[in-house]
Amino acid sequence: MRFPRYFIAAILWMTLQGAAFAETHEVFPDRFYRTFSFAHEPVATVDPGDTVITTMLDSRGHDKTGKLVIYEDNVLTGPFYVNGAEPGDLLVVHFNKVRLNRDWGWNGVRVGLSALLPGYVRGIYDNNFIEEWLQPGRRNAVKWYIDLDKKITYPTRPLGNKVKMEFPAIPAVGCVGVAPPNKTAITSGPTGPHGGNIDYNGIIEGTTVYLNVFEPGALFLLGDGHAAHGDGELLGNGTETSLDAEFTVDVIKGKRIGYTRLEEPHHLVTFGTLPGRTHMGFQAAITEMIQWLVNDYGVKEPEAHVLLGLAAELRVAAWNNTFLCRVAKKYLPEPTPVRMLSGAGGD
Q1: Is-cis flag, bond preceding 190, omega within 30?
Q2: Average pLDDT over residues 184-204
Q3: In 10 A of CB 302, how many CB atoms?
Q4: 8, 78, 226, 285: least surrounded by Cβ within 10 Å?
Q5: How far apart are the C-alpha atoms of 202 and 200, rounded to whole Å?
Q6: Computed from CA positions of residues 207, 219, 240, 191, in that sequence, does the dihedral angle turn out positive or negative?
Q7: DSSP character at residue 232
Q8: b/e burial code for range 233-249 (CB count within 10 A of at least 16 → b)
Q9: pTM above 0.90?
Q10: pLDDT band per the 50, 70, 90 thresholds, residue 33
Q11: Residues 93-112 pLDDT 10s
Q12: Residue 312: other Cβ atoms inside 10 A
């Protein structure tokens, strides 16, 4: 597993200093939330450089044993208060581990109607033909097995006889975010400047998320675990399941970005989170990538524009929510060093 360059710098600096002050917190809360909000009481307070070990319920509130803990949608774990994080700063969250902890999940059975041509929708099959099992009145959720040893997932009932319904089980975090600006509370359904229900299948182990801070302590939350889903989350859900996670936090002081960013081991990813506005969503993601390359990598604007023209990957993370621009690091110089609040980074 290859860590992002910023994160490697942080680890090296802390190692040289003895890293005696970084702590690991095991946090398994008994309360969960449905909103990103400044008003939630933190489940833990951590320092920059600290690591958190925790767990996430599935999107309908079931834990790793299958017990229904809270009957809500896109249930969130947190918030985590990060000391020193203030409005105008940038929160850095590195996912050291994202792991499956349960041998089942569930999926919907029909592509969202907004992703289909109207003429086809008029004759589409009924969305309520599965027995009721997940929640009262719901008859469109198929239970899926998750083979934790083979790391594959497959349905518990046939959906036809021509396609082998077996897919890699790659755990990903659907919701990541902080308390929104202006003392608002936003449900875990949409996306926005605070992050939210991004539903990118690449928020996995080994990635780093960058989020603007709007409230003291940032108040970071995460949830909506997936075992699998393709680009666009076309069924309206992934293979929904509970997950275990370990992440390390840090803060870049006085750093502001336009939208949430993600750093993968070999790629940079920017998001445009404008619900229902595909064109504008991609505009936001592309603009954010150009600004990242120019401001943090020292790339000249013409270089950035032409690089995106020849090498950018444009993908839909979630059909109704999230659009992204992705660029391979192999084309880029080393980034300008930054100083994390934990003390890491260059001068």
Answers
A1: no
A2: 95
A3: 8
A4: 8
A5: 5
A6: negative
A7: B
A8: bbbbbbbbbbbbbbbbb
A9: yes
A10: very high
A11: 999 999 999 999 999 999 99
A12: 18
